[in-house]
Amino acid sequence: MQNKISILYYIKRTKPNSNGQVPIYSRITVDGKRFEISANRFIEPSKWSSEGNKMKGQSEEARSINSYLDILKGKVNDAQKELIHNNIPVNIDTIKNKVIGVE
Question: 50-53 long-range CB contacts below 8 Å, 24 or more apart?
């Protein structure tokens, strides 16, 4: 059985830090159930592209953050592959535990 997994990145405009930057969050959805986790990165709201789910531009900061988000996406895909390989059911709880590092 194939599980539908999607990953969305977004910023939380309601939680700016003292520098006016907002946190980037990741929403992982597995078969309609979801959980959110912080990406531990902050950016200025004007530099975020909601359409692309990434930071705008070609600056070093943008390349670094976008690369980090790609790595997080790969981590979720690797977790799914490992669960399938080990014949463990792929659901929201097993993916969440793999992503955050809980055994």
Answer: 50/10, 53/8, 53/9, 53/10
